[in-house]
Amino acid sequence: MGNSALKAHLETAQKTGVFQLTGKGLTEFPEDLQKLASNLRTIDLSNNKIELLPPLIGKFSILKSLALNNNKLTALPEELCKLKKLETLHLNGNHLRQLPAAFGQLSALKTLSLSGNQLRTVPTQLSGLRHLDVVDLSKNQIQNVPDTVGELQAIELNLNQNQISQISVQISHCPRLKVLRLEENCLELSMLPQSILSDSQISLLAVEGNLFEIKKLRELEGYDKYMERFTATKKKFA
């Protein structure tokens, strides 16, 4: 892509606060973008070949939405965690194995998509984020869900298509968790904490494609309590 094309994009972005350049085979984050660091609210660089997010990302002080789906990122810079206004972060289809240590400082974050990466556990940093609504960790290599999950503030947690065989009972203590997706994992019925059914806020539990028949779930203690929440929620949205 020529410089003139990039320049045109930059001029538009200066007016709109939105920079979108997807599917152009970019191998790096456009450095010229930093000229607009103080007035960009949205950056979408999905479907490129970007391998590194440079530290200068930390300068985009009013950025609300960042999308880098389907790139080649293997790590994220700590500077990303300075984005105090960031509400939406889409990083699906990269090669990320972990999140920066200071990730919990992204205090405005509401939506986080990390589907199709190489995470092996639910990142403990997520527990510090007070405004999280939706967390998508599907299609990773997660094998267990640790105790720290009990502090997660998310309303929806998607763990479909991982390798989960163990879940901490603490997941039933999540104060706002309503939707828990665990389809196509490696769960035995005995490894599913019964408190999810009997003693949690969860009103939609998706567990198809594990190592037990769904009808067996109905025999568990607490299933009737879960169904009460499920039905009440359904009525609310009907």
Q: In CATH terms, what is the fold-level topology?
A: Leucine-rich repeat, LRR (right-handed beta-alpha superhelix)
Mean residue pLDDT: 96
Tally of strands: 11
CATH C-level category: Alpha Beta
User: Overall 3D geometry?
Assistant: elongated
The rounded Rg comes to 20 Å
Stretches where pLDDT is under 50 for at least 5 consecutive residues are: none
State the helicity in percent bands. 10-25%
* H/E element sequence: HEEEEEEEEEEHEHH
Q: Main β-sheet: number of strands, strand sense, barrel status?
A: 9 strands, parallel
Which strand-content bin applies to the residues?
5-15%
Return the CATH architecture. Answer: Alpha-Beta Horseshoe
Major beta sheet, strand line-up = 1-2-3-4-5-6-8-10-11
Structural class: alpha/beta
What count of structural domains?
Answer: 1
User: What is the distance, rounded to the nearest whole angstrom, between the alpha carbons of the first and last residues?
Assistant: 49 Å
CATH superfamily: Ribonuclease Inhibitor
Count of runs of 4 or more consecutive helical residues? 4
